[in-house]
Amino acid sequence: MKALVISGGGSKGAFAGGVAQYLIEQKKNDYDLFIGTSTGSLLVSHLASRKVNEIKEIYTNVNQSSIFSHCPFKIKTKHGVETIGIHHFNIIKNFIKGRKTFGESYNLRDLIKNSTTEEDFNQLKQSPIDVVVTVSNLSLNQVEYKSIKDFNYEEFCEWIWVSCNYTPFMTLVKKNGCEYADGGLGSMVPIEEAIKRGATEIDAIILQTEVSQFNRMPSLNPFSLLTNMFSFMLDRIESQNIRIGKFVASNNNAIINFYYTPTVLTTNSLIFNKVKMTQWWQSGFDFAKHSNEKLSPLETTE
Fold it and tell me: How far apart are CA 205 and CA 66, in angstroms?
């Protein structure tokens, strides 16, 4: 059983899309399981349906307004580096409305529904392919995996959206009496879950360099401090997921082909720049092509 696993990574998901495009269209890989976290969850249903051009169109044209219905920050460029500044008016307005987060991401929910037709969903659900997205249940303090087989169109679109909600900057979703947030808060790289579901060969796209290659810029305001803190925690979670994934794979005779980003794409994946994301998509495609032309992926664990 072959699986494609895509980690979280916000705007860096464009790179993953390029890698996946090569693996599916050029290498002709057929996957039985697609499983993603956060931005990976946005990709997997389209990739499973082989709607690669459609999801590429989205990732190479998206911007802040495509994601945020209520954006909590302003993007500033200083010395060639993009940083986020606090949008005080929007935050105060959100708190006056009684919201629990700094910003809201309902535009992303609409984008997901508009880009995924119910007909495509039903065809995929009836196929032997399984599509799984990762969410974090904050109320029960656990990670949950939502399969397309278990939900209707409206419900699964909502779970994809939930998986991408990077709180406290994006919407905190309440479902079934529980509060849910970005799947990356619990599982950035769900390799272990793929193996539990029967995968024996996994292509894992990791939206991070294999070795840390940079020092973060000093925090300029409370928001940049928060993003730095979350990035640090998510990096630790990601490293732990990979170590556990390798261990579980070795004990289940599973093979993992890792595709890390060769360079640092961005230090703030909440910034959606369509010019850069277009470049990252092509970079991902070229990197996967180069890796496979060497006859073996970047790293393989047996």
Answer: 24
pTM: 0.90
Taking the C-alpha atoms of residue 156 and residue 135, their distance in angstroms, rounded to an integer, is 12
pLDDT of amino acid 301 = 43
Distance (Å, whole) CA 168 – CA 119: 34
Q: How far apart, in Å, are the Cα atoms of 264 and each of 15, 73, 280?
A: 11, 23, 11
Q: Residue 93: its pLDDT value, please?
A: 87
Helical H segments across 49-105, by residue range:
52-59, 64-67, 88-96
Assess contact for 136 and 186: CB atoms under 8 A: yes
Interval 3-26 mean pLDDT: 96
Is 63 in contact with 275 (CB distance < 8 Å)?
no
Residue whose entry in the numeric block shows the structure tokens 């940083």 = 83
List Cβ neighbours of 131 (8 Å cut-off, separation of 6 or more).
33, 34, 35, 44, 45, 48, 124, 147, 148
